[in-house]
Amino acid sequence: MATTAAPELVSVNPATLEPVGSVRRTDPEELPGIVAASRAAQERWWALGPAARAKVLREAARIVRTRADEIADTIVAETAKPRTEAIANELYTAVDHAAWLAKQAPRVLADERVRFSQLHLKTKKAWLLYEPLGVVAAITPWNIPFGIPFAEVASAVAAGNGVVLKPSELTPLTGEWVPRILEESGVPVGLVQVVHGEAEIGAALVADPGISKVFFTGSVSVGRRVAASAGARGCPVVLELGGKDPMLVFADADLDRAVDGALFASFLNAGQACVSAERIYVERSVYEDFTQRLTERSRQLKLGDEVGPLISERQRDNVEQIVNVHRPDREGWFLEPTVVRGPLPDREIFGPVVSVEPFDSEDEAVHRANDSEFGLAASVWSRDRAKADRVARRIEAGMVWVNDFGYSFTTGQAAWGGVKSSGFGRTSSKHGLYECVQVKYLDWDRGRLRPAWWFPYDVETEHALRAALDVLYGTGLERWRAAWRSRRELRQLLRRSR
Ligand code: NAD
Q1: Rounded distance, CA 272 to CA 405, Å?
Q2: Tens digit of each residue's pLDDT (9 = 90 or more) over 125-179
Q3: Does 202 lie in the same domain as 131?
Q4: Mutate to test the pocket of ligand 1, among 31, 274, 372 (most ligand atoms within 8 A of CB)
Q5: Whole domain around residue 383: which residue ranges?
Q6: Hey, which of 78, 206, 219, 347 would you mutate to test ligand 1's pocket, going by the most ligand atoms within 8 Å of its Cβ?
Q7: Are residue 237 and residue 251 in the same domain, yes or no?
């Protein structure tokens, strides 16, 4: 937990409760200068062109690998998560995104030719251009304190933007790695700025008129506040918010794999993953077997080595307010992994707790999965491919995995984001890149033909345009009949165009 004594923000290890280090809180009054510095670097960065940007991102992927151990040290020091998780969820995410962006951003964001099959627009040459937004804000949480900010900042930078990053106040030192890596890779100094602090600096960043878009990852309540504040000044947002993700286990699933998957999906990161499985629905014939095995396995997980602590005392209190969980007798904000039979409230727990309930039919399973205000992700476990596919398509969520869980988070090409209260907009994939640009439509015309619909207006033109509507858009014979019937008007239209 960070202390609030200004001006130092002290980062604390949640297992030992020892301070890890500190950073200086950013004064909101410094923001205009910070945004302006990023903007100045952004213009140079955009002018370099896509190939030079791709080279820098390739280098970033290499530097994250070279400095992987140091980065993992900081992540583990600030979160006390198992080192395996720091590597698998954070370093893989960073390297994969940088490598994917280096390869694909130039292609996805290349000028795109627009073609016209419409006869009256045949003289046109047009393109869609994908231009940077300017300076964007990335406001990020503590649960994946390197993977999330790195992937978001890298995407924005790949599209030619400057970024002001506000990492969580609980993991500021990990956040510092993002500009450090990118500057070592060759982005202009100042392009990626970091500001530190709690809600006050976050809110000031959202309100800053120099910020062209806000990429927010965090809780539903703060996300809505951010969207309202940004909306008040007409600034777009992407919201990656919380979830209450369901896992549907059918009787024909590979039960060993489903139990292993459930254990990982529920207790990874001590349940502090936005896509943690928080509700498991199991077909009744295997419910007892599945639940007993999951409960037994959850008791064998090693606290500290396999299941880290909650990030803060406040986070542990939040979990305990929703459900009664055993506190182990040790230092740090630990809670025992817990499997609960029966329903829990439709609130994100964000801790090592999962509920398991039986279902009797495919329809009931889908209905229960969708019976939530959230819609981030879900997983379906079955050997019947047609059924799994049918069920997955009916689930209201941004991501659905069949016989697996969560892996696509680490990849550059898979879209990430939710529906319903879990947010809107996407990160990762070409859709994540499109979120980082504005689309400009650009056209070229030699100017030889004069459009018939320009001034002056007269009755002949009106009739001719009316007749051309059927000729241009009619289908089959209809169009030829219209052309014959209106030949006089069409001749008139052609005359006007010369
Ligand atoms: P949070 O909403 O408390 O904080 C997120 C960030 O917003 C932090 O940097 C915080 O300092 C900042 N902030 C707080 N108040 C602000 C304000 N008024 N204006 C601007 N910024 C403000 O969330 P958290 O506790 O850090 O993270 C946990 C939440 O994040 C969970 O709900 C989890 O599901 C969600 N999450 C979602 C995704 C996803 O991809 N959808 C990924 C990870 C985490």
Answers
A1: 15
A2: 999 999 999 999 999 999 999 999 999 999 999 999 999 999 999 999 999 999 9
A3: yes
A4: 274
A5: 245-406
A6: 219
A7: no
